[in-house]
Specification:
The complex is a heterodimer of chains A (284) and B (784).
Chain A (H helix, E strand, L loop, with lengths): L1 H12 L2 E6 L10 E8 L5 E6 L14 E7 L2 E8 L6 E3 L9 E8 L9 E5 L2 E2 L6 E9 L8 E9 L7 E8 L2 E2 L7 E4 L7 E2 L7 E4 L7 E9 L1 H15 L16 E3 L2 E5 L4 E4 L1 E7 L3
Parallel strand pairs in A: 2-20
Antiparallel strand pairs in A: 2-3, 3-6, 4-5, 4-7, 5-6, 7-8, 7-9, 8-18, 10-11, 11-15, 11-16, 12-13, 12-14, 12-17, 17-21, 18-19
Chain B lengths: L2 H17 L3 E9 L10 E4 L5 E3 L5 E6 L4 E6 L6 E5 L6 E2 L2 E3 L18 H4 L5 E5 H5 L10 H5 L5 E2 L9 E2 L7 E5 L2 E2 L4 E2 L4 E2 L6 E7 L13 E7 L8 E6 L3 E11 L3 E10 L1 H4 L6 H4 L1 E15 L4 E16 L3 E19 L2 E17 L8 E21 L2 E21 L3 E2 L3 E15 L4 E15 L2 E6 L11 E7 L4 E4 L6 E12 L2 E12 L1 E4 L10 E4 L7 E14 L4 E18 L15 E17 L4 E17 L6 E2 L5 E2 L6 E10 L4 E10 L3 E2 L4 E5 L2 E5 L6 E2 L3 E12 L6 E9 L7 E8 L6 E8 L4 E9 L1
Parallel strand pairs in B: 1-7, 1-8, 12-17
Antiparallel strand pairs in B: 1-4, 2-3, 2-5, 5-6, 9-16, 10-11, 12-13, 14-15, 16-17, 18-19, 18-53, 19-20, 20-21, 21-22, 22-23, 23-24, 24-25, 25-26, 26-27, 26-28, 28-29, 29-32, 29-33, 30-31, 33-34, 34-37, 35-36, 37-38, 38-39, 39-40, 40-41, 40-42, 40-43, 43-44, 44-49, 45-48, 46-47, 49-50, 50-53, 51-52
Classes of the chains: A mainly beta (284), B mainly beta (784).
InterPro entries (chain A): DUF4249
Protein name (chain A): DUF4249 domain-containing protein
Pfam families (chain A): DUF4249
Chain lengths: 284, 784
């Protein structure tokens, strides 16, 4: 259905024209951004930034912030800032399936961007994620919404029980695909307990058409519904823009809040995942 | 009834009439050349107090006292007709057949009265446009467009060119009751909003109520657009049509039985798609994009008292991409009506309507990944309306309306088969109104409408935790299944009373003051959070979680006619308050949702403004100038951050345009040449600018906090057109129309939006414009 809206927008595009313009947008005081992730595979990490004027094109890292990881309510790790990249913080703790995590972020007096204050994330649980059964390339004929050529796709079996959500990330020729159009996440509403790649559920297409020899790595992660909703609004606000048939601009609200006041939110998201990896090369 | 009985009734009523010293004069008013009934013709007793206007079926009824009376009927564009009535006469039935003033050849004096009904009646915030007037306005690609013409009137706006629907005095597009021969039209646009579904050739008359909405109408908050199709020429066979750049059209009409039965059929088909394959761009070349529509009507005058009408409309848009994908949508309406003149002062109309709006999207069936989605809304309407012309001081309207709705929000077939649950609703209303001429200064039109609706099963509805916000599945505690016809929610309650009041204080023959108040209630809602509604947006009824929306409006106006009613000036001020409007959560996903309440918020609205209009409807130069100063705002102040919009503060609606100026002029330069001009200026509509830039894993995204806090640059545009009458014969008249839309090529922005550049990943602001260049057109028109 979203594709239909996209096509309506294409039809609309026949008679419209776009031009990049210069605008004067007043600056506003910086706001805190915290992005982080705990997984069952890699050590915990987080990035802390300050928002910048819209046209600045980058957001500055925020140094000297205390970031504590809690597992099932108990403090388990304190993240340490990178020596080389301001605002990038790394811990050593690796999460475990079924545990619940949150971050506590403290900004101290004298911070370059913010007044002192304490921020927390909402709880995130590491959910189950089935292994990737296979990851392969194949040649496909032309079909609706599909040009002919080589595609990479994965098979995996969705465990029984509605309510699982997933995010897929891909590296093509060792380069991560991270434009707004690359965001891929899905729920099991229509595929609960079924195998991707066995009718009626098609294989999970990752990319294509691409030339023979292209290498791929994929990461399939279980995600919470909160994170799914965050990705959905992030995608909506970055992809579905411009045509009269797009939703209105809206705040992309994550799960970081001022401690004791869930209505006062910072930007960004701290998420928890089980991760599965697979690699493939396009072959003839 | 045998002759004796009718004679005795006639004698009796004449005695009664004599005893009351009045006699009624009633009948119909039609165009002598075509037999079309004339709506709103003025009927006056020159030797008494009585005055009336013909109703939508051309019926009038008037009471006269003893003595002799001259009854004069007048209507713009027609010669006056006078009936002499002598005293002592029994009730008189007389059908007036007016001769168009342009057609008269042998008469010496043109007696065409410009009436001052606009001064003396209680109607305010109402505009009538005839098909002829609309056809004189310069139009995009020469396509005569009813709705685009309406947006040139004060108080009517759209979010931009090419947006579906229109906004009346701060109302959303779903708050307009659009009636085509009394059948509701759910989507008034073709090609997403560039053209309207009304074929101007098939339309007789368009009347827009922005306020002072009579109690006969209900079910929408903001306006009524009453479109009446032509009945068909019952005198002779005739036709007209046009061949244009975008589309061609043909209308045929004629008598089936002269004076008694006639038909009208009209068709239109656009052929933009014929040129698309010429495009070098493969995507465009393989696109299908067209619309067509058909209007048909038959009417049969059984006798002087009974008349029946059957009318239908079918319109469809088709959009396709290569052989991959097809998308179609359209309205179907059918109306059956029976007019019965019960007695000389009692008129009845019974209407039955079936209407269906549908869209479907599909891929070819043989594909492995084929799918098809269908969505529709059907309704069945029964109306009984009565008018009792009690005497010259009281006209009473009353009746009942019922609508049964079935909503089919979506069914998917193909590789995945799934469907949303249907929703059923029944809406009913009863109304009464009295137009009371208190004295020569005051006239009051007081009405009351009571309406309500029930939403009934079968359907399974989710239950949520008490006191918690309905945000997502986290607060779902269970579900309730309702049986067939079991009531899920009922809104037959105290809020169902909708008072309607209009007061006219006639200062003198040339000026009056008017005041109106109306409450309206709406039970069905278009679920759409995009700037312009799309054809795939669905309508949902009020139910367990969606309450009916309500609006109150007060308006006051001063009306003044100048130069012997040649020039009509009006200024109106209005204030309107909206309650319980449907709004949408940030990031709402409205597509294919069974439990739509999880995506919705409810808020209030307010709109206020001043509307000026000066118009000249007769003479070689006609047209109007209108200016509106208005604001429209919305407020959604939920208990939680996630259930508020804009922090719970008032914010401007998408179509809030404080200044709106329109100039529409038409000059009849000679028998051959006719030129038209229109100019529009509007404040740029609100858009949201980002406060700052944020980032998530390499994706830059804008931070928004102030909804609609900025505006795009102002809009202005000039259009010109000319019509040249070509060499014509008695049997074949022809003309050529040509013109330019957006003469000076103003690059009017439609929106400004923010995105990350695909290549450099840098944030940027992008302006989107439509029709940024002058667009010429040429159309060949003919009639026979």
């Amino acid at each position: 259905m979203k594709k239909v809206l996209l096509l309506i927008a294409v039809a609309f595009g026949l008679i419209s024209c776009e031009e990049v313009i210069q605008l004067d947008i007043p600056d506003t005081p910086p706001r805190l951004i915290v992005n982080g992730r705990v997984t069952d595979t890699l050590p915990v990490e987080a990035q802390v930034f300050a928002t910048a004027p819209y046209f600045a094109g980058e957001v500055p890292g925020v140094s000297d912030v205390s970031i504590i990881l809690f597992e099932n309510g108990t403090r388990v790790d304190s993240l340490i800032e990178s020596d080389t990249a301001a605002g990038y913080y790394y811990g050593s703790h690796v999460g475990s399936l079924g545990s619940v995590y949150h971050l506590s972020i403290e900004v101290f007096d004298g911070n370059e961007y913010f007044d002192a204050g304490e921020w927390v994330s909402r709880d995130e649980e590491i959910k189950r994620c089935p292994p990737i059964d296979s990851f392969f390339s194949e040649y496909r004929e032309s079909a609706p919404f599909q040009e002919e050529g080589y595609y990479v796709a994965a098979h995996f079996t969705e465990p029984a029980g509605v309510g699982d959500n997933y995010r897929l990330r891909a590296w093509r020729n060792d380069s991560i695909q991270n434009t707004p159009f690359d965001l891929q996440f899905f729920e099991d509403e229509f595929s609960d307990g079924l195998s991707f790649g066995t009718p009626p559920v098609p294989a999970l297409t990752v990319d294509g058409p691409k030339p023979v020899g292209t290498t791929y790595k994929i990461e399939l992660g279980s995600i919470t519904r909160d994170y799914f909703d965050f990705l959905a609004i992030l995608q909506q606000q970055t992809v579905q823009v411009g045509s009269p048939f797009d939703p209105p601009p809206a705040a992309v609200v994550g799960n970081i809040f001022r401690k004791g006041d869930p209505e006062d939110f910072a930007l960004g998201f701290f998420n928890a995942s089980t991760l599965q990896y697979a690699e493939a090369v396009i072959v003839e | 009834m045998n002759r004796l009985a009718s004679l005795s009734i006639a004698l009796f009523s004449s005695t009664l009439a004599f005893s009351q010293s009045d006699v009624s004069v009633s009948g119909t008013i039609t165009d002598a050349t075509t037999g079309e009934s004339i709506i709103g013709a003025s009927v006056r007793d020159l030797d008494g107090e009585g005055a009336a206007a013909s109703n939508p079926y051309g019926f009038y009824s008037l009471k006269i006292g003893p003595g002799s009376h001259r009854i004069v009927v007048s209507y713009l564009g027609f010669r006056n007709d006078t009936l002499l009535v002598r005293s002592g006469d029994v009730d008189i039935q007389h059908n007036f057949r007016l001769i168009p003033s342009a057609k008269q050849i042998d008469e010496v004096v043109v007696t065409e009265t410009r009436d001052n009904d606009n001064i003396t009646n209680t109607e305010m915030s109402v505009t009538t446009l005839s098909s002829k007037e609309i056809q004189k306005i310069p139009q995009l690609l020469g396509e005569t467009d009813v709705i685009r013409s309406l947006t040139l009137l004060p108080g009517v706006t759209t979010v931009g060119e090419g947006a579906s629907g229109f906004n009346v005095r701060g109302g959303n597009v779903d708050q307009n009751l659009i009636l085509l021969d009394e059948a509701p039209v759910f989507n008034s646009s073709h090609l997403f909003g560039f053209f309207s579904v009304f074929n101007a050739d098939a339309v007789k008359d368009v009347k827009l109520y922005k306020g002072g909405i009579p109690s006969v109408y209900g079910g929408r908050l903001s306006s009524v657009l009453d479109v009446r199709q032509k009945e068909g020429n019952n005198q002779e066979f005739a036709g007209n049509g046009g061949i244009g750049l975008l589309s061609s059209r043909l209308t045929l009409e004629g008598p089936i039985i002269k004076d008694k039965m006639s038909f009208m059929v009209a068709g239109r088909r656009s052929y933009l798609d014929i040129f698309l394959p010429l495009s070098p761009n493969e995507d465009i070349a393989s696109t299908k994009l067209y619309f067509y529509d058909l209007n048909a009507k038959i009417n049969y005058k059984i006798n002087d008292r009974n008349r029946v009408f059957l009318s239908a409309y079918y319109g469809r848009d088709v959009l396709g991409f290569s052989e991959l994908f097809d998308f179609g949508w359209g309205n179907l309406t059918t109306t059956a009506r029976w007019n019965y003149i019960v007695s000389d002062d009692f008129f009845m109309n019974v209407t039955g309507v079936y209407s269906d709006y549908t869209y479907n999207i599909g891929t070819p069936e043989d594909q492995a990944t084929s799918f098809n989605l269908d969505s529709r809304i059907r309704n069945y309407i029964g109306n009984m309306n009565f008018t009792w012309y009690a005497n010259n001081n009281h006209t009473v309207d009353f009746g009942i309306n019922t609508t049964t709705y079935v909503f089919y929000p979506g069914e998917i077939t193909g590789i995945v088969e799934t469907s949303l649950q249907n929703e059923q609703a029944f809406e009913a209303a009863a109304f009464i109104a009295d137009e009371w001429k208190i004295n020569e200064f005051f006239t009051i039109s007081a009405g009351l409408r009571y309406s309500g609706m029930v939403n009934y099963g079968p359907r399974t509805v989710l239950d949520y935790e008490d006191g918690a916000p309905i945000l997502n599945d986290s607060t779902v505690v269970g579900s309730t299944t309702y049986d067939n016809n079991e009531v899920i929610a009922s809104y037959f309650d105290i809020n169902g009373f909708e008072p309607r009041l209009a007061v006219n204080y006639t200062i003198d023959e040339t000026q009056s003051l008017k005041l109106s108040y109306n409450r309206t209630r709406q039970y069905i809602h278009l679920i759409s959070n995009t700037t312009s509604p799309t054809p795939v947006d669905v309508w949902r009824p009020s139910g367990k979680y969606i309450e009916p929306a309500m609006a109150d409006q007060v308006a006051i106006g001063y009306f003044r006619n100048l130069m012997d009613n040649k020039i009509k000036f009006s200024v109106e001020a209005y204030y309107k308050q909206f309650y319980n409007l449907v709004d949408y959560k940030d990031g709402a996903d409205l597509i294919f949702q069974d439990n739509i309440e999880k995506e919705l918020l409810f808020g209030d609205g307010r709109a206020y403004g001043l509307e000026f209009m000066i118009e000249k409807k007769s003479g070689w130069l006609t047209g109007w100038v209108s200016y509106t100063l208005a604001r429209t705002e919305r407020k959604v102040e939920g208990e939680f951050r996630a259930t508020r919009i804009n922090g719970g503060d008032w914010y401007p609606a998408n179509f809030d345009k404080p200044h709106d100026l329109s100039i529409v002029l038409n000059a009849q330069l000679s028998d051959k040449w006719d030129i038209g001009l229109n100019f529009a200026y509007q404040t740029g509509r609100p858009v949201t600018y980002p406060d700052a830039l944020s980032e998530y894993q390499g994706i830059f995204y804008p931070v928004y906090s102030n909804r609609n806090g900025a505006r795009i640059p102002d809009y202005h545009r000039l259009d010109l057109s000319a019509t040249y009458v070509l060499e014509s014969t008695k049997y074949w008249e022809q003309s050529l129309s040509f013109g330019i839309y957006n003469v000076y090529g103003r690059n009017n922005p439609y929106s400004i939006f923010f995105r990350q550049d695909v290549e450099t990943a840098q944030p940027q602001a992008v302006q989107l414009s439509i029709f940024a260049a002058p667009i010429p057109f040429i159309t060949y028109n003919f009639s026979f």
